[in-house]
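Tokens help. Consider this.
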Amino acid sequence: MSNIITYFENAYDELIHKVSWPTWKELQETTAIVLAAIAIITLIVFVMDGAAEFLFKNIIYKIFK
């Protein structure tokens, strides 16, 4: 049982004294970067989905009609 208590004490000490937490401004900047990346990736997937749909509807279906 003392090993578990020691583990949590060490984990708490590391989180409070050793971890470098970002500032509020850094957090906002990285969040904006992540949201922009998500928007770009979403747009790429949307375009790829539209292209695949176009190919299937206009090429594949006409071949097998």
Q: What stands out?
A: The mean pLDDT is 93. Residues 2-63 form one domain.
